[in-house]
């Protein structure tokens, strides 16, 4: 296959001569085609056993569609992992404004510490929790309606009981650095867990069904009560009224009933108090050397999660997971590959530096380097382009011409400053150039409008050429992302304390292009 695909390029000039073959090669080496991913459904089934998923709260009302999709899918998986490992504490790394953290605490009654390096994000998380009090009554009402609806469905249709038997997962690939050095190709099937599923139908008489329905309804009422308490726990003390025993006419009650109701009221208040801080937003910068016990005073057996952890933070999350015995599992979805630090990019000797790429010994031994341009390309969204969400060609053209201007007029080839989202604020190319030069702290007074437009006219006929070039980058993007994600997976495969690790496609890539999660569970003895 490598020989066939290599003919896409000219042997002498190394220029691309067969675009169709290039596209086929890119598809061949994408994650979806390599077969290294574990289906999300298989993971959930293996973790769940016979447990029932939580019902009730939906995040649609206080999140956009993309974030709502991500939070719902990932929170269900995190809850199943937590239940499987028997833990109630979750550490959300790079938690931002707390979308995932708050949902995990409200919906699943998990104790979540959300850690973010930005104090403005942490403050935003506090503010979001304050505003959630506007929604809690709607959740309570919706939960009640769901309970009634599900009770009727339960009476008419008894679900089939399922039994899941998960086979032993092969972990032979990449057991040590020596075997890695001698392997030029990965054995795909060793990366993928094997699960078999059997169904067992349980017949039931009408009497059994009625009895089970009563039991089920009571359990659902308890679940609903717990969900409402979880919501109240996240909200401030003044968010809702306290429906205590003072609302009843105690004069008509006997002394025994008064005592019983008073005790019930005290228990409810105690429970509310214990659950009043299910979600803790914290501000701290996380590195590979971070001691979580210095940040979280009541650190216990827990799992780490990260929803779109930026750059090196995704790699550091995995390193902390492998190093700390308290952390029993990890579920990390990375992003911003262009911000990864690379060990072999600048060929600098920094022995104490912890790099974002490569992580695994296999690629380290080969001195592998992607480079910033390749990592930038890995951030592109092929699936979105495929459904018609085209690249912003005009803004890319503006930026390309600006680069020519600052090199030829100002002699600048590299700068620590960034143009940012200047295009969306600009009324014309001239306006764009002047705004950008000010951001780059370059004097725009020596550049007349006519000179700026001369550059624009000189290159505008090449806009289609630029668009074609960027489309080739989009096609190649999944291949570069494969390299980064497999590097992280192989790093986990090299660790002796990991019981299982895998790549799982969590999200719809059109809604959320960075859709792959790196998941791992430690050995129970660790």
UniProtKB/TrEMBL annotation:
Q: What is the name attached to this protein's record?
A: MET25 protein
Higher taxonomy: Eukaryota, Metazoa, Chordata, Craniata, Vertebrata
Methyltransferase domain sequence ranges: 66-343
| Name of encoding gene | Mettl25
Q: Which Pfam families match?
A: Methyltransf_32
InterPro entries given in the database record:
Methyltranfer_dom, METTL25, SAM-dependent_MTases_sf
Q: What species does this protein belong to?
A: Machaerirhynchus nigripectus
Q: Which domain of life is it from?
A: Eukaryota
